[in-house]
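Hello forum,

I keep getting stuck at the same step: I have a sequence, I want structure tokens, and every attempt I make locally crashes halfway through. Rather than fight my setup again tonight, could one of you with a working pipeline run this one for me? It's a single chain of 73 residues.
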Amino acid sequence: MKLLIISLTAFVGLAACSSWHWEKRGALDGDYQRDEIFCKQQVYTTADGVVTKASVRRMHACMQAKGWQKVAN
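Reply #2:
Ran it on my machine without issues. Output:
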């Protein structure tokens, strides 16, 4: 049991190190928020409030279609 707790703690710690953010060349102030709101409305309005891996993939695809790229921190 103790080994499981240590393993989970290490996994969570490593996952936090692999963070990223969205970037878009030439984006102006407010562009990210506007595109994010648009994509959330497209993806999550049909969902019943449950966020799934599939809905996250659709959200990312929408942001990429708007010209945003995931960039490591």
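The chain is about 60% helix and 10% strand. If your local run keeps crashing, start a new thread with the error log.
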